[in-house]
């Protein structure tokens, strides 16, 4: 294994940022119990009512800016800084709390995109920008008024999949933190890593949908169990 080939792949989900005040999706009181995901997190929902979708994400952007990394984000950043190139974070989270906790940006792959980036739904130009979105704003590249947050909705293809699957096939250890294991393709990563020979560990509040595929599990709040695992 060369230095730039990670030996640990860490998949993170909404549970990691829950104690930073950002809501999860499927827990009691989670986002998908408050709004219909078909309305706000699909290309069809955006086509039907773009103003509604943009208002939903403008509010999420504000919440994200106000949130702070918690001890679990900081512990993962310490691990990465202690072992440069050895631990790759693959996050489903669209917040930037890994980076703000000190994780090297090149070692964090945002497979479901980022709230602080904007995408033109017409020409696919993507750029750093978290100013409020509206249907009146035009794309800086093509001028068309079709801007949206650069996040991956249901039915769209997640980012960085080639690099992620290559890392899963080479890693010695796969760790899943704060994710329900309900959403594909991320839900299949544990089986993929395991089939390629990795040990597997789940750190979550409760057993996830894929719980039987993990060699070991620790249940509890991320801010407690992640620093303990890293130490
Ligand atoms: C704590 C905690 C604490 C709480 N400490 N833990 C039928 C079968 C299989 C697949 C499909 C199917 N029908 C359709 C599909 C595909 C679909 C899919 O998976 N659907 C399922 C729902 C069935 N997937 C897609 O469409 C994806 N694209 C795709 O498949 O493309 C095709 C393709 C793939 C590969 C190659 C080529 C083509 C895209 C999925 C996009 C998901 N987007 C969202 C929204 C992003 C933008 C936004 O934020 O608004 O991503 S949905 C939402 O779910 C978000 C999350 O990243 C994602 C995962 O959620 P996560 O992180 O797991 O959160 P929760 O809430 O579910 O779980 C939190 C967990 O934390 C819980 O277990 C808690 O207990 C725990 N927890 N507090 C520790 N303090």
From TrEMBL:
The keyword Protease does not apply. Zn(2+) binds at residues 120, 123, 139, 142. The active site is at 112 (proton acceptor). It is found in: Cytoplasm. It catalyses: N(6)-acetyl-L-lysyl-[protein] + NAD(+) + H2O = 2''-O-acetyl-ADP-D-ribose + nicotinamide + L-lysyl-[protein]; N(6)-succinyl-L-lysyl-[protein] + NAD(+) + H2O = 2''-O-succinyl-ADP-D-ribose + nicotinamide + L-lysyl-[protein]. Keywords: Cytoplasm, Metal-binding, NAD, Transferase, Zinc. Pfam families: SIR2. NAD-dependent lysine deacetylase and desuccinylase that specifically removes acetyl and succinyl groups on target proteins. Modulates the activities of several proteins which are inactive in their acylated form. InterPro entries: DHS-like_NAD/FAD-binding_dom, NAD-dep_sirtuin_deacylases, Sirtuin, Sirtuin_cat_small_dom_sf, Sirtuin_class_III, Ssirtuin_cat_dom. PANTHER family: NAD-DEPENDENT PROTEIN DEACYLASE, NAD-DEPENDENT PROTEIN DEACYLASE SIRTUIN-5, MITOCHONDRIAL-RELATED. Binds 1 zinc ion per subunit. 2 residues (Tyr-57 and Arg-60) present in a large hydrophobic pocket are probably involved in substrate specificity. They are important for desuccinylation activity, but dispensable for deacetylation activity. It comes from Oceanicella actignis. Its EC number is 2.3.1.286. Belongs to the sirtuin family. Class III subfamily. Substrate binds at residues 57, 60. GO terms for molecular function: histone deacetylase activity, NAD-dependent; NAD+ binding; protein-malonyllysine demalonylase activity; protein-succinyllysine desuccinylase activity; zinc ion binding. Its cofactor is Zn(2+). NAD(+) binds at residues 13-32, 92-95, 178-180, 204-206, 222. The keyword Transferase applies. This is NAD-dependent protein deacylase. GO terms for cellular component: cytoplasm. Residues 1-231 form the Deacetylase sirtuin-type domain.
